[in-house]
Amino acid sequence: MESISPAAPDAPKDKSGRWDRVLAALARHKSISVGEVARQLGISESTVRRDFAEMERAQLARRTHGGIVAIDVAYSLATTPRDRDETGAARERVAAAGAALVGPRQIVGFNGGRTTTSTARRTVSRTDLDAHDGKPALTVVCAALNIATEAVLRPSVRTVVLGGVAEPYSFELTGPLATATMRDLWLDTMFVGMIGLDIQAGLTCSSDAEASVTRTMIGHSRRVVGLATADKVGVRALAAICPLATLTDLVIAGEVPDSLRAHLQEEQVRLHEV
């Protein structure tokens, strides 16, 4: 079997980091063994077995004798990272904090992006949000195909996918059909990822078509949670998503400039530093 990459020296020891590494390896290789994970991550085989058991309960994978296998051919779309960068650990802290904001039976929306995808994965995997009385534990409204594949694998989650044209790199659904569908839906919480976060420009992304759909989702949500890492601060991309004042919450990992902190306080946006 091929190795989990990268190998042991920078391997994560926390559970969320371990899971992300295992899921990425599953997307590439379709099956991995207990022993291989233990060697590559520098942890005990008993820890790996516990992780595998929890992943199976969360319906992320299926255990086999001595290992674990991917459960669906669409799995790779949901779990394969498009790249690997230095902000990965910070991004996962944001995702964990964002997922913790979701309550049972909420209707939750996500636009596309790496941070929102990680947040969606953690949200739908929460075992404390089990379904009861035949009702879904959560309803997830997806503006991106890869997030839909994260959600639809969980029977306790009702998955709603917007129509429209799928963008090839972000997997986001755009166009009049996506916007029209969203106009008939309402959300409790909308998670918003972005390329740039700037006091004057607000939240921005590289596609005006994607920004348009995200704005409609924001306008139909009670709570709007921005998800960012510190490298996004001060960046301006092509298309405006919304002003910072539109947010109810901002979850951010890394150093927050005093000017941004003051602006958020002035606009009564709750700041969650992770």
UniProtKB/TrEMBL annotation:
It comes from Brachybacterium equifaecis. GO terms for molecular function: DNA binding. It comes from the Bacteria. This is DeoR/GlpR family DNA-binding transcription regulator. Keywords: DNA-binding, Transcription, Transcription regulation. Residues 15-70 form the HTH deoR-type domain. PROSITE patterns: HTH_DEOR_1 (PS00894), HTH_DEOR_2 (PS51000). Pfam families: DeoRC, HTH_DeoR.
